[in-house]
Design goal:
With 829 residues, the protein is mainly β. It starts with a strand and ends with a strand.
């Protein structure tokens, strides 16, 4: 059929997305035969009707480029319109032929843009909810309002409230043409939350071998509403419910029921705020391991592999336990680790069920050992402040060595222990090269604040004491005089510089300065430390020249060397320190065993420690054990002098003692991020000569908040919550003490910018003056709870409330107390 068009010839009408898209032809008279399309060359393309979009980009999207040959009528223009519709930016699209000349066609793409967003607001939501929703939306003024945008806003809003437990929440989005801006709309997101829906009952049907209680405990996020569940949630969240159904089946699998499955499950409404869940189960039969054979193993015998696997004939089938002993057990005792710690990076083991007879299963462990891989390149990414060499010296995977999974695990631990990086963000990316049997290893880190500004307050020695200190944990001495080295402080070499002032005014002042180089010489982990300090405690405002003045002044210095040991294992370190303190004592009276005079304390301390915790701020596993001995020369034994009738000045001119301390901290994960911590502390101050007696210096003061570094007379203040400061020791301090603590810790946030965890504790301890009175089971007991908050701005903040059950020292009539708050604060920048 022939069609003659004089002015405008419409040759196609396209309907899409409920809007009309028209292709129009105008200009010269043409004879078009739809059964025989005519070929034209595009001579020009223009775009009309747009305000915000680039014309050239739109022409490229359409595909109608100048010089292209197209058929009219044909698919080229139809495709162009479809390409533009896919952008979701237009409510109407027309393609017009403006003119045809010399077999060239000139086209115009006429577009009507969708409206853009002016503002959006909420109704029916609280301000905190609005703030969170605005953050999730990620839309801005000027964005094109498409149907996809409206659907996304509705879905995100409903999902947000469903996650909060408002399963009946309804969301409507209203569009209003903006009165202020052309082609713009205002959106109002109307929310009807309804009541929060809780789970009243979870009903299991068909379970005979596992109780309802066990199955409910397996569901971590789907819980029944109970009066005693204060911190837990009983909200119904469909996504979490789906995950928990998988955990129910995993629970059955762990008990040998490998065929267990959920036949059906349903939710039904009890009332507007409560629902119940019915879960119908098919348990199947219980299975057991029978025969396990190994194929492909040449490095280790079947007996060795069976010992590592730990599965015996007749054991209950447990897929999770089998996988754990085959692949990446956290303890490092699994078959994969056995091979990978010996360089077999390309190792693979596949457990295959080769026979299932009645209730017994035979497995064949098919092993591919491959070749041993050597480490090629080791790189670090993400460090913006810490120098590469500081990180590389802690890395145990060295180029040329055999690949070892254990070395990678140890490296991530050592990097976390530095305290410079977020321990949750330390990553490892092995890049194997099977062709040449090598592997490149890339470590990724994320810097976090490590320098500390301490602002602390506490009560000690009958005084309110404040502290101000600066600790630069990633200091660089060589950058102090280097151009551009202050950014804003010289840092990056892993050295530690600390300056501290502690005072309550004229009655007490303490000043200290210390420096530590962890790698003396730069190659081996041999640390070097130096420290100087001065403190003055005055009971009055009189000067020390006044014979009535009462006080104590201490000046001291120390120098120390540390070494990382390789035996018994490389978690051990040794630290030795040479110390000297000079004491001046004025009219101390009965509160101090030494009344008047001066004393010299020259001692050597040695500490053997083993530290294997996984990270410093919130350790989940490992231990920290220390045994230390601090000794002075036995002056009285060397001199042979009779000190039975000696004066204080003679007895304490050169202080002599031997001081032993033992501390042990153990961490273990209970479940998830819930951590158990147990600690034991002992201290003993011994003497050489009974005529001189125990030293009045270096004694132990037990009880209270344990205000650290309160330097008076070398005393050690040991925290025991639930009691007043120093209340569990005599006024002159104890020469022996013990302390036991158990804690349960649970994190609310492990973000390095806001690490928060709760704790409950039970602890006990006591101190004595004479060793013959020591009884490790005679302790002052307390229980309590607390919270720790670590913020880069404030450092670690802590608040504990403890209740003591026993009388304080010298107060037998007082049986316990009503409780004590203990507060600590530190600041980081």
């Amino acid at each position: 059929m022939l069609l003659r068009i004089k002015h405008i010839c419409i040759f196609l009408l396209l309907l899409a997305n409920s809007a009309q898209a028209q292709i129009q032809l105008g200009g010269e008279e043409l004879n078009l035969d739809y059964s025989a399309p005519k070929e034209y060359e595009i001579g020009g393309v223009t775009v009309s009707g747009t305000r915000y979009l680039d014309e050239n980009v739109l022409i490229n999207i359409s595909g109608l480029s100048i010089g292209r040959t197209i058929d009219i009528p044909g698919e080229a223009i139809t495709d162009a319109i479809q390409n533009l519709w896919k952008q979701g930016l237009f409510s109407d699209i027309k393609v017009q032929c403006k003119r045809i000349k010399d077999n060239k066609v000139f086209l115009d793409i006429e577009l009507q843009e969708r409206p853009r967003l002016n503002v959006f607001s909420f109704s029916g939501a609280r301000k905190s909810e609005v703030d969170k929703l605005r953050e999730d939306y990620k839309i801005q003024t000027g964005n094109v309002v498409t149907q996809n945008m409206l659907t996304l806003l509705k879905n995100k809003t409903e999902a947000y409230y469903h996650e909060k437990g408002f399963l009946n929440a309804m969301v409507n989005i209203n569009e209003v043409v903006s009165a202020n801006r052309a082609n713009h709309v205002d959106l109002t997101i109307a929310i009807e939350k309804g009541e929060r829906v809780k789970i009243k009952n979870i009903n299991f049907i068909g379970n005979e071998n596992l109780s309802d209680a066990k199955l409910k405990r397996a569901m971590k996020e789907t819980k029944e509403k109970k009066w005693w569940r204060i911190f837990g949630s009983s909200k119904f969240i469909p996504e979490k419910y789906t995950e928990d159904k998988v955990k129910v089946i995993e629970k059955y699998t762990d008990k040998g029921f490998r065929d267990a499955n959920i036949l059906s499950d349903s939710t039904f409404k009890i009332n507007t705020s409560s629902i119940a869940l019915d879960i119908k189960l098919e348990e199947g039969r219980k299975y057991y391991f029978r025969n396990i054979t190994w194929v492909g193993n040449t490095k280790h015998t079947a007996a060795e592999l069976n010992q590592i696997l730990g599965v015996k004939k007749g054991d209950v089938y447990n897929q999770a336990a089998l996988d754990q002993h085959l692949f990446m057990n956290q303890t490092g005792r699994d078959v994969s680790s056995l091979y990978m710690d010996d360089g077999y990076l390309f190792f693979n083991v596949t457990p295959v069920e080769i026979a299932v007879e009645n209730d017994s299963i035979d497995f064949e462990m098919r092993i591919y050992e491959g070749k041993q891989a050597t480490v090629n390149k080791v790189t670090v990414m993400g460090n913006t402040k810490t120098n590469d060499r500081v990180i590389m010296r802690e890395i145990r995977t060295k180029p040329g060595q055999l690949f070892s999974r254990n070395d990678i695990v140890r490296t991530t631990r050592e990097l976390a222990q530095l305290g410079y990086f977020d321990p949750e963000k330390i990553g490892v990316n092995p890049k194997p090269n099977p062709a040449d049997g090598t592997v490149d290893i890339e470590y990724t880190v994320e810097e976090k604040p490590s320098d500390q500004l301490e602002l602390q307050g506490g009560y000690g020695a009958n005084q309110l004491v404040g502290s101000l200190g600066v600790t630069l944990n990633n200091f660089s001495a060589r950058n102090m005089f280097k151009k551009g080295g202050w950014r804003p402080l010289p840092s990056g070499d892993g050295q530690r510089m600390s300056a501290r002032v502690q005072t309550n005014g004229v009655f007490y002042q303490m000043y200290s300065l210390s420096f530590t180089e962890p790698y003396l010489g730069g190659k081996k982990p041999n640390s070097f430390s130096v420290n100087i300090f001065h403190s003055a405690f005055n009971r009055d405002r009189l000067g020390k020249e006044n014979p009535l003045h009462s006080g104590l002044q201490t000046t001291g210095a120390s120098i120390g060397l540390g070494k990382r040991l390789k035996w018994p294992d490389d978690y051990f370190t040794y630290y030795g320190e040479l110390n000297y303190q000079y004491y001046e004592v004025y009219n101390q009276g009965q509160s101090f065993a030494f009344n008047n005079g001066f004393a010299n304390n020259f001692n050597i301390s040695q500490t053997l420690s083993r530290k294997s915790i996984d990270q410093p701020i919130y350790p989940r596993k490992g231990s920290d054990v220390n045994l230390s001995l601090q000794v002075t020369p036995p002056y009285s034994l060397i001199s042979g002098k009779d000190f039975s009738g000696a004066t204080e000045r003679e007895r304490y001119k050169f202080i002599e003692y031997h001081k032993w301390k033992f501390t042990s901290n153990f961490f273990a994960t209970v479940v998830g991020d819930l951590v158990f911590n147990a600690s034991v502390n002992y201290g003993f101050l011994g003497l050489y000569n009974r005529d001189i007696g125990p030293s009045p210096f270096e004694r132990f003061y037990l009880g209270g908040d344990g205000l650290s570094n309160f330097t008076l007379d070398g005393r050690e203040i040991i925290r025991l919550r639930g009691y007043s400061n120093f209340s569990l020791s005599p006024s002159t301090g104890g020469t022996i003490f013990d302390k036991y603590t158990v804690e349960l810790r649970y994190p609310l946030s492990l973000n390095p910018s806001a690490t928060i965890y709760l704790l409950t504790f039970a602890e006990g301890g006591n101190s004595w003056v004479k060793f013959r009175d020591f009884n490790p089971f005679d302790v002052k007991r307390s229980v309590g709870a607390g919270v720790r908050i670590f913020l880069p701005i404030f450092g670690m903040l802590g608040l504990d409330y403890g209740i003591g059950f026993d009388p304080e020292y010298g107060n037998i009539k007082r049986q316990g107390n009503t409780g004590q708050f203990h507060f600590m604060i530190g600041q980081q920048f």
